[in-house]
Amino acid sequence: MLKDKDVVFLWSPEKGDTFLLNLEEGAKLDSRLGVINHNDIIGRSYGDGVRTHLGSMFYILRPNVLEFSRRIKRKTQIIFPKEIGMIIVALGVGPGSKVVECGTGSGSLTAALAHFVGDEGKVYTYDRREEFSLLARRNCEKWNVAHRVEFKVKDIAEGFDERDADALFLDVPTPWDYLRQAKEALSPGSRLGILVPTTNQIEKTLEGLNDHGYVDIQVMELFLRYYKTNAKRIRPEDIMVGHTGYLIFASTVRDIT
Amino acid sequence: MLKDKDVVFLWSPEKGDTFLLNLEEGAKLDSRLGVINHNDIIGRSYGDGVRTHLGSMFYILRPNVLEFSRRIKRKTQIIFPKEIGMIIVALGVGPGSKVVECGTGSGSLTAALAHFVGDEGKVYTYDRREEFSLLARRNCEKWNVAHRVEFKVKDIAEGFDERDADALFLDVPTPWDYLRQAKEALSPGSRLGILVPTTNQIEKTLEGLNDHGYVDIQVMELFLRYYKTNAKRIRPEDIMVGHTGYLIFASTVRDIT
Amino acid sequence: MLKDKDVVFLWSPEKGDTFLLNLEEGAKLDSRLGVINHNDIIGRSYGDGVRTHLGSMFYILRPNVLEFSRRIKRKTQIIFPKEIGMIIVALGVGPGSKVVECGTGSGSLTAALAHFVGDEGKVYTYDRREEFSLLARRNCEKWNVAHRVEFKVKDIAEGFDERDADALFLDVPTPWDYLRQAKEALSPGSRLGILVPTTNQIEKTLEGLNDHGYVDIQVMELFLRYYKTNAKRIRPEDIMVGHTGYLIFASTVRDIT
Amino acid sequence: MLKDKDVVFLWSPEKGDTFLLNLEEGAKLDSRLGVINHNDIIGRSYGDGVRTHLGSMFYILRPNVLEFSRRIKRKTQIIFPKEIGMIIVALGVGPGSKVVECGTGSGSLTAALAHFVGDEGKVYTYDRREEFSLLARRNCEKWNVAHRVEFKVKDIAEGFDERDADALFLDVPTPWDYLRQAKEALSPGSRLGILVPTTNQIEKTLEGLNDHGYVDIQVMELFLRYYKTNAKRIRPEDIMVGHTGYLIFASTVRDIT
């Protein structure tokens, strides 16, 4: 039974409109199909329908990471679901993982990582700008995973506080400047992930990874193409995202002395 | 410190050769760069190097789901890492999730799901063919997640044994034949995922999803393009995977009576 | 030296704005960077610059098929340059070719075909709707190739008037209804090209092509991804066209009697 | 009626095997389906069938640029049909065009350009290595377009011999070294096309184009995905070409003095 603070995903069969909502007693949601009272959802269950004051139906669905990261409140470029899935899989993140991340940004990856590490895991996320750290914390609170995250406002040039991290992710403009720090924070044999938007950054990052002795380096990009869902006219959407960023993965090893 | 039964991922700086290994005391690995004794790895740590009898170095890296699902012992078409990442994210799978899957096949998705649900979660996987169920179990045992999986040899036309599943995945030739059964097994408001290789199957699946009252239907495909890792000659690989399958996602709702 | 009726392509170094223009004595072009008098272009040469009344520069470039087909005046979905290039190449169109096309639509492919067949070639284009035929003729006149085209307002269910065509292209909603007619019009051993937007149409087209004895059938789709042109930040554009249509090619053969 | 020296494209309905052939009296073609005597084709027509000595049928189809450029005898990396189509369209090549190209390589683009410029046009192609020039000439002879081409063995660092070219294409490792020479050869307001395989080369090329005052610069890449042609199982081919090269286009303008 749904209660205050629960997260619901609303979907309209009429127009396909969607909302991701933190339930709050007494609150109202405005939509172009009419107003929905949160109180009309509280006490109901996932899978039920709720009507706006104009009579339009919305279905109450379970939220998922894909919708959450797409709809996050943002002040920065976010990391998209297609990349998030690959990052989780390629970094080997899972229940109990200890993951370090920089920068926090709006927290789309932070929240996803916190979802996947579970209550036994931990996410340590760094950003130099306090406003982003606060925004990301609020976003993680909405998703009820903020307790699994340590938000740090700090310049990683000084190094990470953690050692023996299971995975580390860099989403910063000059990742090549922090490869020594990343290596110190990672458990040997573990994976570093990096997202960069330009090929010039791939070049400098690859040079840095080689200089710092990273191994099993992989560079990739993902395309996601949605299709229209009319069974009689199956075809891709006219417009698609052409680029978000390039993903780079590499493993640390012990220095041979 | 690595011990018997641990999983390691070996990577050669010389040729980029890789192996995913379950350590076994006394066992040997044959490679084109020479023989590696498992005993030379046992007692070492991730991040260390180990040499073949011919002197070639392999690094001992932590395994991850990406490499595991790519290298799984298979008798069937497997589900690939790029789809696995999206499936996990779009189905909202995470620690504690109760996930149902059919067919088991070689168990690449089974093992990945079992990895992500953690010890508090559970994966129920169905296949009509006992040989696949056994193969998938062995694959999950290698990855040390078999205890989180119930392997069932059963025709799902009779229905799933589970109710209130958090997510359900169908990788079968005629998913439209099992949409009623899937809906019965899923918790209302939760997501069904489907993989089909052809557009003819998309058509029939979309018709079935509409007939059975599923909502928020999405159809997509993912492309993964690897790049060469020479910093001075950045370019995509000449050849890429052109197609694995189309992913379809939809949510169940309660029937309005 | 540029004169009345010549076609010029204007490009602004300031904002990247572009115009494709038929020069007309005394005419004016309104742009957000100011007004350009056609008379200021007439008498100049390609490669020169011309200034708006506000002092902004536009360069006078040679037009090409790519820009023309992108910028054509349209009342219908047009065929895009990436498909036009492949169609020309796969149909073997060239100087002297005799090409049949249906439907005419806004004439983007008509004009491109007329460009490539030269003065020794001929394009026969069919459309049931006179308004499209007229629009396409005006577009071809702008490109100075209308004299190479016969515009026919006619239902191709009754068959094409031509025989021994070197190539034939169908851009109609139900191409499978006209495969007999296409075969009659084509020279044996020559190629038919088809554009369809949905996979359901691919299915019916392939069935029809097999029924009518076409051989060497090929189905393909093309993706075109533009990159930003800042040398220090090389990356694809954020948004790209996700779909225009599927191209199908097949050859006719003589019926064995 | 087919005669000595004609080009035919053979296609087997049995296995999809294909051959591009210059007919030669008395010659034989070996295939895994048996031997075909050229004399059995001479005197027949396009669209007819011919049988191997083992009774397998091949259809005699009209050749096209797509198949020719794919099947060209090569000693170098060739330019592929998907790029050729875009190059022709973006450079505005057509009947009567005067086109300059470097390097000649195996002549796949040379032959395609020669096809499209017709008997009123001309292609001037440069390569430093005589063996490529000779190979390309033989390839163009097979396609019966060699009379439209001037093959030059010369280093373009010294400049091109031509002035007022309608279009110029560079397929060389360091195109940025020849941008002055290209500008001198091109008619003002006309287009330069460049193919480079790496992003590092895009970077240097963009810098050079800006330094030399080129305008309307465009960078793009094309993907071509083939589909299987079974109407009941429509799906892309498993494997596709992931990369051939990046296309860069830019226009020359008159220097303002």
UniProtKB/TrEMBL annotation, chains A, B, C, D:
EC number annotated for this UniProt entry: 2.1.1.220
Gene3D superfamilies noted in UniProt: 3.10.330.20, Vaccinia Virus protein VP39
GO biological process, one term: tRNA methylation
Pfam family, one: GCD14
GO terms for cellular component: tRNA (m1A) methyltransferase complex
GO molecular function term, any single one: tRNA (adenine(58)-N1)-methyltransferase activity
Protein name (database record): tRNA (adenine(58)-N(1))-methyltransferase TrmI
Species whose genome carries this gene: Thermovirga lienii (strain ATCC BAA-1197 / DSM 17291 / Cas60314)
